[in-house]
Amino acid sequence: MMQSVRWKNAGIMLLMATGAVLMLLPFWVMVITSLVGPDEVFQMPPRLWPSRWHWENYGRLFQQAPMALYFFNSVLVSVVTTVGHVLFSAMAAYAFSRLQFPHKNKLFFVFLMTMMVPPQVNIVPLFFLMKTFHWLDSYAALIVPGLFGAFGVFMLRQWFNGLPRELEEAARMDGCNPWQIFWRIALPLATPALAALAIFVFINTWNSFMWPLIVTNSESMRTLPVGIATLKGSFRDTTDWTVLMAAATLSILPVIAVFLMGQKQFMQGLLSGGVKE
Q: What's the pTM value of the predicted model, to 2 decimals?
């Protein structure tokens, strides 16, 4: 019996290790391609280790495109959008969870229905809204539409539903008003869920391509995904793939850093209440 369990566990571990290798392989090929010579990019079989390290590919990347500006725009837009989205989602989620007001459940149902609308449907009305406000080709057009979303409200509402009401009653007896209870009691206790939502929003904003491409015209307002797309030529032979892969490699570093910094809170948020009914 014990031997059977060991074989089963070994099989599961082998399956998981195979899946991990398959997941990491494209990233490994991307990094290696950024460090090989142009004549080795399409070599068959593909190289998994360069014959000579071409670190100058990264230097050529910064000579061909204003990568520092693209990085600055992406960091600014992603950080401001993440902070605002988490704050507004937490406020709305707490209101739907703890406060009493007319037609609360009906309003929350309508709120949830917006999750069923594909984001592509909103692009045209949002574009005309940005045009009406004269926000095209500005940071406002890149940031403001991302500050609100039903998913974050739904996720945090589930967390706030699990908070003991005794904490609020104790705070109320100490003289706290609803805003103070939210800001001083509920919000600090929801840190794991907030961290999980922040990681979701940051990654989604950092990787966003379609919306920044539509609302920006000048090179000074381009974010990193849009800037990387300009490095690709119309044909395979006209594209400097080593430089393109160098840009892709640099673009994933902030996402990995954010995930590693918030990994503990991210797992707690998912397991302890982020998706709990």
A: 0.83
